[in-house]
Amino acid sequence: MRLASYALHGRPSFGVVVGDGIVDLRPRLNRFSALIDVFRAQALDQAKAASDGVRPDVPLAEVDLLPPLSAPEKILCVGVNYANRPADYDITTTPKYPSMFYRAPNSLVGSGQNLVRPKISEQLDYEGEIAIVIGRDGKHVPKERALGMIAGLTLCNEGTIRDWTRHGQFNVTQGKNFDACGGIGPWIETDFDLGKPLHLIVRKNGEVTQDDTTASMIFSFADIIAYTTSFMTLKAGDVICTGTPVKNTPKVDPPVWLKPGDTIEVECPSIGVLRNAVVDEA
């Protein structure tokens, strides 16, 4: 299933994307008010049963896609997790453990919504990533059982305000959490095969600028889940953004940042395309 959250004429709902339309699940699963509740109740089978063989209620083109999960308890991000990416930070040793940080839900918008370049900085950058959605609660999950925690996959543009990632002495939190600086979606794909690498392609204004597979990850999905659950409980509906590949565009000085009118597309053929344009903060 491709599970989406959306608004139709300003009314929020959630459903299953079927072809070019959406089967509205809110009236069919009326004990749930949002998609996050379906994940927390581990009710994906109910969503499938309610949508199988049902004609879409509304064309996809008529809705506004929202972030698939409203206010998950945790949005965790893994930094510097693809081969050669440490070189961007003059790091020559292989890390022993993942580098991790939090994002707030209001820092991410849905596919088709605008990324906002803030008034306070012009250094809006993009990072295309595959994100995993946790399907059940877990603590101290061994690596060999970690993939069983994953209920779905989505895409993230982990937008970053670069000159604010070192605004404090030691952390990146500020630069990762400006309102609407990143995107997530377009939906959550629950039918996936983790037995082979996932292909990730990022385009800026139609030009491919990132192109890699999860085979290049330093820490795999299973590594990340096993490590994270060694110190915290992952909950159903939590999201983990798993890192971004190296950009294949030449470095220039000064760097070229995103500007109003630019469009970023993050694609994984197994999931879909997350697409966002850039505007200036009003």
Number of helices: 5
Rounded to the nearest angstrom, the distance between the terminal CA atoms is 37 Å
Shape: globular
Radius of gyration computed on alpha carbons = 18 Å
Mean pLDDT across all amino acids: 95
What structural class should be given to the helix and strand makeup? mainly beta
Strand percentage, roughly?
25-35%
Give a short account of the largest sheet: 12 strands, mixed
Number of strands: 19
- Give the H and E element order: EEEHHEEEEEEEEHEEHEEEHEEE
Low-confidence stretches: none
Fraction of residues in helices?
10-25%
Describe this structure in words.
Strands 1, 2, 3, 4, 5, 6, 7, 8, 11, 12, 14 and 17 form a 12-stranded mixed sheet that branches. The protein has a 5-stranded mixed sheet with strand order 9-19-18-15-16, with no helix packed on it. The chain has a two-stranded antiparallel ribbon with strand order 10-13. It is globular and about 55 Å long. The mean pLDDT is 95. A hairpin with a 2-residue loop joins strand 2 and strand 3 (21-24). The protein has helices at 35-40, 44-51, 143-146, 173-176, 221-228, and strands at residues 2-8, 11-18, 21-24, 58-59, 64-66, 75-79, 99-102, 108-109, 115-117, 124-125, 128-134, 150-157, 160-161, 182-189, 199-204, 207-213, 239-241, 263-268, 272-280. It has 282 residues and is mainly beta. It is built from 5 helices and 19 strands.
Task: Give a short synopsis of this structure.
By secondary structure, the chain is mainly beta. Helices cover 11% and strands 34% of the residues. The protein contains five helices and 19 strands.
